[in-house]
Amino acid sequence: MAHVKEHRAAAAGSETRHVLPPLPYDFAALEPHIDAQTMQIHHGKHHQAYVTNLNNALGKHPELLTKSLEELLRDIKSVPEDIRTTVRNNGGGHHNHSLFWTIMAPPPPARTGENAPTGALADVIKRTFGDVVKFKELLSTAATTQFGSGWGWLTVADGKLEVFSKPNQDSPLMDNKVPILGVDVWEHAYYLKYQNRRPDYVAAWWNVVNWAEVSRRYEAAR
Ligand code: MN3
Fold first, then answer.
1. In what order do the strands lie in the sheet with 178-184?
2. What is the CA(205)–ligand 1 centre distance, in A?
3. Cα(127) to centroid of ligand 1, in Å?
4. 5 alpha carbon – ligand 1 mean position (Å)
5. pLDDT tens per residue, range 138-184
6. Domain spans in the chain, listed from the N-terminal domain onward
7. Torsion angle defined by CA atoms of residues 49, 55, 60 and 65, in that order, rounded to the nearest 10 degrees
8. Fold adopted by 35-222
9. Residue 70 and which of 79, 110, 113, 211 are 20 to 30 A apart at CA?
10. Whole-structure pTM value
């Protein structure tokens, strides 16, 4: 088991091991859309395993511990071949899930209206995709038709939005695109509650999208 140096300051150039970020809400906070047991296993077991495996791989090339996760993924081809696939899968898994927890939040009370993007993000979604409904259909389709395991993504590159899916734990950073919203469609993300009904899970997931955080990521990326 990897010995994790907890919360060590990530000063530039210093070696630092990757750590599992705490979930920003309770395991049950996204119910009924995503159940507590799924969240507990997904965060505590699956995400933790990506972090542990990433640290174990980087331990074979400790000089890479000075690089940020984003740097490693953007330049995955420069990672030594003996650990490249492990870093791709587990570094990608660590980055994808770290984003995933933050772009979800407990659904707003029904009285405040629908859970929808606002401001500049809403404007660019409408300009790019026609309207929010069409955008949601596009991302839902990309996610539900991804064969096997993977993610549906909304990304920013050169100020432009794009929707697509990628297999496994591949990060859009590997294509020089900044992910601002992603839906995990690995079976571990939904099988306990939804079994084989991936479209039902994706439809429910829209209720817990944290649009304020997606907006913040859009502003940072454009
Ligand atoms: Mn997952």
1. 160-167, 150-157, 178-184
2. 14
3. 31
4. 24
5. 999 999 999 999 999 999 999 999 999 999 999 999 999 999 999 99
6. 35-222
7. 160
8. minor pseudopilin epsh fold (3.55.40)
9. 211
10. 0.92
